[in-house]
Amino acid sequence: MRRDASRNRSTILDSARELIAEPGELKLSAVAKHAGVGQGTLYRHFATREKLVAALYTGEIDELVTSAHELVDQHPPTEALTLWFDRLAAYAQVKRGVMDAVDSTAWAEISAHTHRKLTEAIDTLLGAGSRDGVLREDVDARDVILLSWFLAHVKPEEWDERVPRLLDVLVSGIRTPRSPTQ
């Protein structure tokens, strides 16, 4: 992909990420305008709204997976897990917009392709903590996915107050009883 085409694609995705979190329907014309590109440019990259939303969602998952590996390399396991949950919370806001922007069939197809990647990221984090004896060995990626579903149900007006507290409860429940807070 040419440098300008790559830049346009990135700008379109950044604009879609911002707009999808806003109330109302995600319109391709609004994304193009926000990105500062023509509609033809947008359609060359993303022929449909579903393709744009799928690319946005897949990109977010890929960033979560990459960050899991980076965080495990750079931080103690419990801290890495906590920092990753902060990123997961930010992603959840995009995910809510994605779910609102596509029909249930498209959502099922989009999420089916990313579930394995998300499981891999969580396994990386849990494995590091388990090896160090600070995270429970009986908690698996599916447990974490199920427990983190609360993020999809927190109302925007209570997000800043409730989400940090609930994430702290989640991390505390995954720690081994004898592990330190970090």
TrEMBL record:
Pfam families reported for this sequence: TetR_C_43 (PF21597), TetR_N (PF00440)
InterPro entries: Homeodomain-like_sf, HTH-type_TetR-like_transc_reg, HTH_TetR, Tet_transcr_reg_TetR-rel_C_sf, TetR_SbtR-like_C
SUPFAM superfamilies: Homeodomain-like, Tetracyclin repressor-like, C-terminal domain
Feature: DNA-binding region: 27-46
Name the UniProt record assigns to this protein: TetR family transcriptional regulator
GO MF annotations, alphabetized: DNA-binding transcription factor activity; transcription cis-regulatory region binding
Annotated HTH tetR-type domain residues: 6-64
UniProt entry tagged with the keyword Transcription regulation: yes
Alphabetized UniProt keyword annotations: DNA-binding, Transcription, Transcription regulation
Lineage: Bacteria, Bacillati, Actinomycetota, Actinomycetes, Propionibacteriales
